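In this supplementary section we document a worked example of the pipeline. Step one takes a protein sequence of length 577 as its only input; no multiple sequence alignment statistics are reported here. Step two produces a three-dimensional model, which step three serialises into structure tokens for compact storage. The input and output of this example are shown verbatim.
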Amino acid sequence: MRYLAVALDYDGTIAEGGKVADATLDALKRIQASGRRLLLVTGRQVKDLRRVFPEYEIFELVVAENGAVLYRPKGKHKEVLAEPPSAAFLEALHSAGIEFDTGHVVISTARENESALLQAISELGLEMQVIFNKDVAMVLPSGVNKASGLTRALAELELSPHDVLAAGDAENDHAFLALAECSVAVGNALPSLKERADLVTEGADGQGIAELTDRLLDNELADVAAPLQRNSSLLGYEGEREVTLPPRGVNLLVTGTSGSGKSTAVTGFLERLAERGYQLCIIDPEGDYEGFEPAIVLGDTKRAPSADEVLEVLRSPDRHVVANLLGVSLGDRPRYFARLLPRLLELRATRGRPHWIVVDEAHHLMPADWEIASEISPPAEGMVYVTVHPDLMYKGALEQVNTMLVTGKQPAEAVRAFAQAVGETAKLEAPEELEHRHALLWHRGQPGAIEFTVEEGKLDLKRHGRKYAEGNLGPDRSFYFRGPNGDLKLQAQNLMLFSQIGEGVDDKTWTYHLRRHDYSQWFNDAIKDKKLAKAVRKIEDKKGIGPKKSRSLIRAAIEERFTLPADEPSGLQDENS
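The serialised model returned by step three reads:
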């Protein structure tokens, strides 16, 4: 099940003229019967909702007052999530002759009173905001909106926004629709909402929800590609073009010769998934992910983490876990993983998480003769298998792979061998050996592949940053300040020396290389940092920029990506001396 929860606005979405039609209620019951969680996200007050919609208990949770109140219909328990309006503010509105309605937190009035509301907020120095819902203006504390209320509701259900489908029609729905994995605007929605939604229904209000229900239950909105594209994560660059993978529908095999950059490619991809809120569970037999900052690391050389410990961390959607198996002998690792994987898949079935399960050294954890394999069905998506030897992996897992990332030597042969292992054929043209930090991305069944430059993650930048900042890149990868006449040969074998020499060379030499785009080219080719190269290229292209300003901006761009050591005597190396 792709979407475990459906979050819906009330007025103008499931209700027309304040009332929910029988056909719409039937659609809501069908969603509920499918096992999905139904959430109502409305600007209305709870007392008002009860009056106009007696069947409100079909919703498991109600986010009311535009995010300021969380209501639990079954227990009739109300939780106020923000501070009520001050007496001074209410008095100011009364004095201004404004007619308004007050809930626990929200103040609602006619939209035409916007100026008077803003004036009262300004005069009293309050931290409040005005939010519109078509012809209604609502006043709430800053930061309180439908997204903040939905976030609180999802935390209670232990669900991630990435497992939510949301629908609305008005200005105040922008926030919670943007939070959800897939956003829907019903046919009567405001144009601004339709422009930003992933899907717009043909039908208005309740008819649109009935239409949406049919599509959801029929194929999980598999034909709506926008959420996947919007949330794709970067792998690297093919020239200037981003190479990405969608967050769903992918089973990835990462393979390549030892030391060819598999971990660099995987780590950067995982960090960017984590930044987007997709939950990760990394099975780490060799302790390679101990420094993976987004995650909580369990286990060490003395003990293995229990499945219960791993699951406890994963209970919270915003936490990631690394299961360090250094305390598990090589022979016991397949049995350990065979016990853990079903628990992870059970959590995924009920909570949609972890969104990605990463199996490092997969040929050790899922060997070809995996004894318990017949009892486990490897999932069709959300897996990353990292291995030097895919030919030694359990075939059932390989059969579910639909995407390969290959590094190092003979990448085309690696794809061919995989295809042969799963009873298919594949013939690709590729270099005999991929360059440093280059990889090949192949989608199963496709005749061609993409060669791209891998974008490092923060963990790899830390690993390599010291080398780039103060190590020795060697003669072939150093930068040489030669000047317009070629009479200099000042070697900068790292970023620290580049910055120091750059500060000391004459303006003509500095400007010569600047105008030739030599600096951005070096950052791209030798330092292998496309973001830095792009930033410096923009500086190089600035018209009328002088040497002093350009030096300052380029050094700042370097320091934004790398931590340079404190300034020391430059130790300039002139190879002619």
